[in-house]
Amino acid sequence: MNRSVARCLQCLALLVGLAALVFLLWEPHLEGRNAHATVFQVYFNDPFLAFAYLGSIAFFAAVYQVVKLLGHVASNGRLPPGAPKTFRFIRNCALTVVGFVAVGEIVIFLQESDDRAGGVAIGALIGLGSIAVALVATKFERAPAPAGELS
Fold first, then answer.
1. DSSP H helices in the chain
2. Taking the model in full, what pTM does it have?
3. Would you call 111 exposed, middle or buried from its count of C-beta atoms within 10 A (0-12, 13-18, 19+)?
4. Taking the domains of the chain in order of start, what are their residue ranges?
5. 3-state secondary structure of 48
6. Is residue 104 within 8 Å of 123, Cβ to Cβ?
7. Cβ–Cβ under 8 Å, residues 130 and 101
8. Neighbouring residues of 56: CB distance < 8 A, sequence distance ≥ 6
9. pLDDT tens digits for 68-87?
10. Can you tell me the distance from the alpha carbon of 48 to that of 140, in angstroms, rounded to the nearest whole number?
11. How many CB atoms lie within 10 A of CB 1?
């Protein structure tokens, strides 16, 4: 991997993190029950929203580690010696997100609602994406360290 590819991937990771942050802050205002609610009512009267924000901490921690790792690759041309530990952290963050999504799906199924499909579909997409990230991080964690530069 050359340095320009690492910088592009770093920018992409930052954009994904920024898009997720914007979505988390903007989407609650679009819900039907929050159409005429105040900001206080939107953010402090919904325990499920607080649960989603708590679960997103692991996502943003993983994005930070990815940006930091790619920054090191872009500046030095190779992975740092502590890369397996970083990949393990990213894997654990992804599995934490999967756990939060699973609990959220259980809560959705236990509530009486006529409109579960949207929440279940979004949860399935987030869960599958997190499982894919965990598998890739595990693969890179177990890969032998390359001798020399990645350029």
1. 3-26, 39-44, 47-76, 83-110, 117-142
2. 0.85
3. exposed
4. 3-142
5. helix
6. yes
7. yes
8. 20, 24
9. 999 999 998 888 889 999 99
10. 34
11. 15
